[in-house]
Amino acid sequence: MSKDENKKIYSSLSFLEKRLIPTILILFVTLTVVNYAFDFNVNYQNFIGTTAGKAIFDLKGSLLSISAIFIGIYVTVFTLLGSIKVDSIFAYLNENTFKDLVIYIRNAFIASFSYLILIIVLEVSYEKFTEINYLLVVLNITIVMYMFLTAFRFGIILYIAFSKDLQNLQSNIEKHREEKRRIVELQYRIEKFLDEHEKDMRNNQNNKMSEIINKENE
Fold first, then answer.
1. What pLDDT digit, counting tens, does each position of 28-80 carry?
2. How is the chain split into domains, by residue range?
């Protein structure tokens, strides 16, 4: 995969982050809030506020576990980005694209962490789902949507990166073995050279000592 191909892929991911995902969320929030304010469609309003909202709220235990897993993954990736291999796909990214990648992961982390905070607030503030304000239900749905959309995009990034690295795994192993063999051979040649040089030095020193002794005997 060439550098140009990598740039095209991450340009597509940039479109997801900067255009598609915000557009989906803005359309959803705008449609839902406007419908709530003017009662355009009562069935849609009931579906969001009761059916979908309650279903997502009832799944908060599972969603909390998922968000915690996402947070752990993002923190791990942040750590791994500090030790990128030279032959990894990430090493082909320019500075701006790499910064965009960090922003993607940061936003995904914020989405998962925001869900944790929101659920804590709702659990502390309300005893029953029916007591929760409609706009908070919409906010909960929006954060869940964003959390999974960013996780989906992040999954695409990982798939592209690791599939590329796995394709090069065998060649990288062969390169590593060849490099190791060359280093061992170089070390052997250096040691042999040093041994021969030391041997020559000892012979020269012995010859000089022999000459000195012979002169004194004469």
1. 999 988 888 887 888 888 888 888 888 888 888 899 999 999 999 888 887 87
2. 3-167, 169-218
